[in-house]
Amino acid sequence: xxxxxxxxxxxxxxxxxxxxxxxxxxxxxxxxxxxxxxxxxxxxxxxxxxxxxxxxxxxxxxxxxxxxxxxxxxxxxxxxxxxxxxxxxxxxxxxxxxxxxxxxxxxxxxxxxxxxxxxxxxxxxxxxxxxxxxxxxxxxxxxxxxxxxxxxxxxxxxxxxxxxxxxxxxxxxxxxxxxxxxxxxxxxxxxxxxxxxxxxxxxxxxxxxxxxxxxxxxxxxxxxxxxxxxxxxxxxxxxxxxxxxxxxxxxxxxxxxxxxxxxxxxxxxxxxxxxxxxxxxxxxxxxxxxxxx
Length: 293
Known about the structure:
Blueprint: E1 3-6, E2 9-17, E3 21-25, H1 32-43, E4 48-52, H2 70-83, E5 89-94, H3 96-107, E6 112-118, H4 127-134, H5 137-143, H6 145-159, H7 163-177, H8 183-187, E7 193-198, H9 206-215, E8 219-224, H10 231-234, H11 236-249, H12 251-264, H13 288-292
Parallel strand pairs: 3-4, 3-5, 5-6, 6-7, 7-8
Antiparallel strand pairs: 1-2, 2-4
Helix pairs in contact: 1-11, 2-3, 4-7, 5-6
Protein backbone atom coordinates (compact mmCIF):
# COMPACT_ATOMS: atom_id res chain seq x y z
CA UNK A 1 0.00 0.00 0.00
CA UNK A 2 1.48 3.40 -0.95
CA UNK A 3 1.58 6.23 1.56
CA UNK A 4 1.53 10.01 1.25
CA UNK A 5 2.47 12.55 3.91
CA UNK A 6 -0.49 14.88 4.51
CA UNK A 7 -1.71 16.87 7.52
CA UNK A 8 1.02 15.36 9.71
CA UNK A 9 0.05 11.78 8.87
CA UNK A 10 1.48 9.07 6.65
CA UNK A 11 -1.80 8.19 4.95
CA UNK A 12 -2.02 4.72 3.45
CA UNK A 13 -4.20 4.44 0.39
CA UNK A 14 -5.16 2.35 -2.61
CA UNK A 15 -5.62 3.77 -6.09
CA UNK A 16 -7.22 2.00 -9.07
CA UNK A 17 -8.75 2.99 -12.37
CA UNK A 18 -8.44 5.78 -14.87
CA UNK A 19 -10.36 9.03 -15.27
CA UNK A 20 -11.42 11.94 -13.04
CA UNK A 21 -10.57 11.51 -9.34
CA UNK A 22 -13.14 9.80 -7.13
CA UNK A 23 -12.35 9.73 -3.39
CA UNK A 24 -14.02 6.88 -1.53
CA UNK A 25 -14.10 7.27 2.26
CA UNK A 26 -14.75 4.19 4.39
CA UNK A 27 -16.63 3.71 7.63
CA UNK A 28 -15.37 3.27 11.21
CA UNK A 29 -13.28 0.12 11.81
CA UNK A 30 -13.32 -0.65 8.08
CA UNK A 31 -11.29 0.10 4.95
CA UNK A 32 -11.83 1.31 1.42
CA UNK A 33 -11.80 -2.03 -0.37
CA UNK A 34 -14.01 -3.54 2.32
CA UNK A 35 -16.72 -0.90 2.01
CA UNK A 36 -16.42 -0.26 -1.75
CA UNK A 37 -15.10 -3.54 -3.13
CA UNK A 38 -18.38 -4.20 -4.95
CA UNK A 39 -18.23 -0.77 -6.60
CA UNK A 40 -14.60 -0.69 -7.78
CA UNK A 41 -14.94 -3.16 -10.64
CA UNK A 42 -17.61 -1.00 -12.24
CA UNK A 43 -16.41 2.52 -11.53
CA UNK A 44 -12.67 2.07 -12.04
CA UNK A 45 -13.48 2.20 -15.76
CA UNK A 46 -14.71 5.80 -15.47
CA UNK A 47 -12.76 7.18 -12.50
CA UNK A 48 -9.39 7.04 -10.83
CA UNK A 49 -10.58 5.73 -7.47
CA UNK A 50 -8.60 6.79 -4.40
CA UNK A 51 -9.26 4.91 -1.16
CA UNK A 52 -7.40 6.51 1.76
CA UNK A 53 -7.35 4.85 5.18
CA UNK A 54 -8.69 7.15 7.90
CA UNK A 55 -6.37 7.92 10.80
CA UNK A 56 -6.11 4.98 13.16
CA UNK A 57 -7.34 2.56 10.49
CA UNK A 58 -5.45 0.10 8.32
CA UNK A 59 -2.31 1.70 6.91
CA UNK A 60 -2.66 5.17 8.48
CA UNK A 61 -1.09 5.00 11.90
CA UNK A 62 -2.64 7.10 14.66
CA UNK A 63 -2.65 6.55 18.41
CA UNK A 64 -6.15 6.95 19.83
CA UNK A 65 -4.56 8.15 23.07
CA UNK A 66 -3.92 11.40 21.20
CA UNK A 67 -7.65 11.85 20.60
CA UNK A 68 -9.99 11.64 17.64
CA UNK A 69 -12.11 14.28 15.94
CA UNK A 70 -14.36 14.42 12.90
CA UNK A 71 -12.84 17.84 12.24
CA UNK A 72 -9.47 16.16 11.82
CA UNK A 73 -10.96 13.75 9.29
CA UNK A 74 -12.14 16.68 7.15
CA UNK A 75 -8.68 18.22 7.22
CA UNK A 76 -7.01 14.87 6.49
CA UNK A 77 -9.19 14.33 3.42
CA UNK A 78 -8.59 17.72 1.84
CA UNK A 79 -4.87 17.63 2.65
CA UNK A 80 -4.66 14.16 1.06
CA UNK A 81 -6.31 15.41 -2.14
CA UNK A 82 -4.10 18.48 -2.22
CA UNK A 83 -0.86 16.59 -1.65
CA UNK A 84 -1.68 14.32 -4.59
CA UNK A 85 -2.65 17.34 -6.70
CA UNK A 86 -6.18 16.09 -7.30
CA UNK A 87 -7.88 19.48 -7.31
CA UNK A 88 -11.68 19.18 -7.29
CA UNK A 89 -12.91 15.61 -6.90
CA UNK A 90 -15.93 13.38 -6.98
CA UNK A 91 -16.46 12.45 -3.32
CA UNK A 92 -18.29 9.49 -1.83
CA UNK A 93 -18.40 8.25 1.73
CA UNK A 94 -20.03 5.54 3.78
CA UNK A 95 -21.00 5.97 7.46
CA UNK A 96 -18.04 7.72 9.17
CA UNK A 97 -16.70 8.42 5.68
CA UNK A 98 -20.07 9.84 4.67
CA UNK A 99 -19.97 12.23 7.60
CA UNK A 100 -16.49 13.26 6.53
CA UNK A 101 -17.57 13.71 2.91
CA UNK A 102 -20.52 15.96 3.67
CA UNK A 103 -18.40 17.97 6.09
CA UNK A 104 -15.80 18.55 3.37
CA UNK A 105 -18.53 19.51 0.89
CA UNK A 106 -19.90 22.07 3.35
CA UNK A 107 -16.53 23.55 4.34
CA UNK A 108 -14.90 23.51 0.90
CA UNK A 109 -17.80 23.22 -1.59
CA UNK A 110 -15.64 24.27 -4.54
CA UNK A 111 -13.50 21.13 -4.08
CA UNK A 112 -16.41 18.73 -4.70
CA UNK A 113 -17.71 17.88 -8.16
CA UNK A 114 -20.36 15.43 -7.00
CA UNK A 115 -21.19 14.02 -3.58
CA UNK A 116 -22.52 10.62 -2.50
CA UNK A 117 -23.24 9.99 1.20
CA UNK A 118 -24.40 6.65 2.53
CA UNK A 119 -25.58 5.69 5.99
CA UNK A 120 -25.46 9.14 7.59
CA UNK A 121 -27.88 11.41 9.41
CA UNK A 122 -27.68 15.07 10.42
CA UNK A 123 -29.10 14.12 13.84
CA UNK A 124 -27.15 12.84 16.85
CA UNK A 125 -29.61 10.14 17.86
CA UNK A 126 -30.03 7.24 17.42
CA UNK A 127 -26.57 7.24 15.83
CA UNK A 128 -24.66 8.07 19.02
CA UNK A 129 -26.46 5.51 21.18
CA UNK A 130 -26.13 2.71 18.63
CA UNK A 131 -22.47 3.50 17.98
CA UNK A 132 -21.68 3.57 21.70
CA UNK A 133 -23.03 0.04 22.02
CA UNK A 134 -21.53 -1.32 18.80
CA UNK A 135 -18.12 0.26 19.38
CA UNK A 136 -17.60 -1.24 22.83
CA UNK A 137 -14.37 -3.22 22.54
CA UNK A 138 -15.31 -5.26 25.62
CA UNK A 139 -18.62 -6.28 24.04
CA UNK A 140 -16.99 -7.19 20.71
CA UNK A 141 -14.35 -9.38 22.35
CA UNK A 142 -16.95 -11.08 24.57
CA UNK A 143 -19.85 -11.51 22.15
CA UNK A 144 -18.19 -11.47 18.73
CA UNK A 145 -14.75 -13.06 19.10
CA UNK A 146 -14.54 -13.90 15.39
CA UNK A 147 -15.14 -10.22 14.56
CA UNK A 148 -12.48 -9.22 17.08
CA UNK A 149 -9.99 -11.47 15.29
CA UNK A 150 -10.86 -9.83 11.97
CA UNK A 151 -10.23 -6.41 13.48
CA UNK A 152 -6.91 -7.61 14.89
CA UNK A 153 -5.76 -8.73 11.44
CA UNK A 154 -7.07 -5.58 9.79
CA UNK A 155 -5.49 -2.97 12.05
CA UNK A 156 -2.79 -4.43 14.32
CA UNK A 157 0.00 -4.71 11.71
CA UNK A 158 0.24 -0.89 11.49
CA UNK A 159 -1.63 0.35 14.58
CA UNK A 160 -0.02 -2.08 17.01
CA UNK A 161 -1.64 -4.67 19.22
CA UNK A 162 -5.01 -3.53 20.52
CA UNK A 163 -5.14 -0.52 18.23
CA UNK A 164 -8.80 -0.95 17.31
CA UNK A 165 -9.71 -1.60 20.95
CA UNK A 166 -8.42 1.84 21.84
CA UNK A 167 -9.80 3.54 18.73
CA UNK A 168 -13.44 2.46 18.54
CA UNK A 169 -14.55 3.81 21.94
CA UNK A 170 -12.87 7.12 21.08
CA UNK A 171 -14.79 7.28 17.81
CA UNK A 172 -18.01 6.55 19.69
CA UNK A 173 -17.28 9.42 22.07
CA UNK A 174 -16.53 11.72 19.13
CA UNK A 175 -19.92 10.92 17.59
CA UNK A 176 -21.63 11.86 20.85
CA UNK A 177 -19.82 15.19 21.12
CA UNK A 178 -19.11 16.38 17.57
CA UNK A 179 -20.61 19.61 16.27
CA UNK A 180 -23.56 18.82 14.03
CA UNK A 181 -24.02 20.48 10.64
CA UNK A 182 -26.62 23.22 10.82
CA UNK A 183 -29.20 23.92 8.09
CA UNK A 184 -26.97 26.77 6.93
CA UNK A 185 -23.99 24.38 6.74
CA UNK A 186 -26.01 21.94 4.65
CA UNK A 187 -27.13 24.67 2.26
CA UNK A 188 -23.46 25.29 1.42
CA UNK A 189 -23.28 21.79 -0.08
CA UNK A 190 -23.97 22.94 -3.63
CA UNK A 191 -22.63 19.91 -5.54
CA UNK A 192 -25.11 17.40 -6.99
CA UNK A 193 -25.67 14.91 -4.17
CA UNK A 194 -27.01 11.40 -3.80
CA UNK A 195 -28.16 10.33 -0.31
CA UNK A 196 -28.40 6.56 0.23
CA UNK A 197 -29.73 4.67 3.25
CA UNK A 198 -31.06 1.22 4.02
CA UNK A 199 -34.68 1.01 5.12
CA UNK A 200 -33.61 -1.03 8.17
CA UNK A 201 -30.54 0.95 9.16
CA UNK A 202 -30.48 1.16 12.99
CA UNK A 203 -28.27 4.28 12.87
CA UNK A 204 -30.19 6.19 10.19
CA UNK A 205 -34.01 6.16 10.30
CA UNK A 206 -35.56 6.64 6.87
CA UNK A 207 -37.10 9.96 7.86
CA UNK A 208 -33.60 11.23 8.80
CA UNK A 209 -32.28 10.37 5.34
CA UNK A 210 -35.29 12.09 3.77
CA UNK A 211 -34.76 15.11 5.99
CA UNK A 212 -31.12 15.34 4.96
CA UNK A 213 -32.05 15.20 1.29
CA UNK A 214 -34.62 17.96 1.80
CA UNK A 215 -32.02 20.32 3.29
CA UNK A 216 -29.47 19.95 0.49
CA UNK A 217 -29.77 22.30 -2.52
CA UNK A 218 -29.38 19.64 -5.25
CA UNK A 219 -30.01 16.18 -3.82
CA UNK A 220 -31.57 12.85 -4.71
CA UNK A 221 -32.55 10.07 -2.29
CA UNK A 222 -32.27 6.29 -2.58
CA UNK A 223 -33.79 4.13 0.14
CA UNK A 224 -32.52 0.58 -0.32
CA UNK A 225 -35.22 -1.97 0.53
CA UNK A 226 -34.70 -4.80 3.01
CA UNK A 227 -31.26 -3.50 3.97
CA UNK A 228 -29.48 -2.38 7.10
CA UNK A 229 -26.48 -0.08 7.44
CA UNK A 230 -23.99 -1.67 5.04
CA UNK A 231 -25.73 -0.81 1.78
CA UNK A 232 -22.68 -1.07 -0.50
CA UNK A 233 -21.94 -4.63 0.57
CA UNK A 234 -25.47 -5.92 1.20
CA UNK A 235 -27.22 -4.56 -1.89
CA UNK A 236 -24.42 -3.80 -4.38
CA UNK A 237 -26.52 -4.23 -7.53
CA UNK A 238 -29.07 -1.63 -6.44
CA UNK A 239 -26.40 0.78 -5.21
CA UNK A 240 -24.24 0.40 -8.32
CA UNK A 241 -27.15 1.03 -10.65
CA UNK A 242 -28.15 4.13 -8.69
CA UNK A 243 -24.56 5.41 -8.71
CA UNK A 244 -24.22 4.84 -12.45
CA UNK A 245 -27.40 6.79 -13.14
CA UNK A 246 -26.35 9.55 -10.77
CA UNK A 247 -22.95 10.01 -12.40
CA UNK A 248 -24.47 9.95 -15.89
CA UNK A 249 -27.11 12.54 -15.05
CA UNK A 250 -24.62 14.89 -13.35
CA UNK A 251 -21.77 14.60 -15.85
CA UNK A 252 -22.32 18.03 -17.44
CA UNK A 253 -22.65 19.78 -14.08
CA UNK A 254 -19.53 18.06 -12.78
CA UNK A 255 -17.57 19.09 -15.87
CA UNK A 256 -18.65 22.72 -15.42
CA UNK A 257 -17.67 22.63 -11.74
CA UNK A 258 -14.26 21.20 -12.67
CA UNK A 259 -13.70 24.04 -15.15
CA UNK A 260 -14.73 26.60 -12.56
CA UNK A 261 -12.36 25.17 -9.98
CA UNK A 262 -9.48 25.08 -12.47
CA UNK A 263 -10.08 28.75 -13.25
CA UNK A 264 -9.95 29.91 -9.63
CA UNK A 265 -7.44 27.50 -8.03
CA UNK A 266 -5.33 27.51 -5.91
CA UNK A 267 -7.28 27.61 -2.67
CA UNK A 268 -6.37 27.18 0.96
CA UNK A 269 -6.66 23.55 2.02
CA UNK A 270 -6.13 21.86 5.33
CA UNK A 271 -2.54 21.20 6.30
CA UNK A 272 -0.97 23.55 3.71
CA UNK A 273 0.17 27.14 3.55
CA UNK A 274 -1.27 27.84 0.11
CA UNK A 275 -3.07 31.19 -0.15
CA UNK A 276 -6.83 31.40 -0.22
CA UNK A 277 -8.87 32.89 -3.03
CA UNK A 278 -11.37 35.25 -1.34
CA UNK A 279 -14.08 34.06 -3.74
CA UNK A 280 -13.84 30.61 -2.15
CA UNK A 281 -14.48 31.59 1.46
CA UNK A 282 -17.34 29.88 3.27
CA UNK A 283 -19.27 33.15 3.33
CA UNK A 284 -19.22 33.25 -0.48
CA UNK A 285 -21.43 30.16 -0.43
CA UNK A 286 -23.72 31.27 2.39
CA UNK A 287 -27.17 32.55 1.42
CA UNK A 288 -27.47 36.33 2.02
CA UNK A 289 -29.97 35.92 4.83
CA UNK A 290 -27.60 33.61 6.72
CA UNK A 291 -24.68 36.01 6.30
CA UNK A 292 -26.82 38.85 7.61
CA UNK A 293 -27.46 36.94 10.84
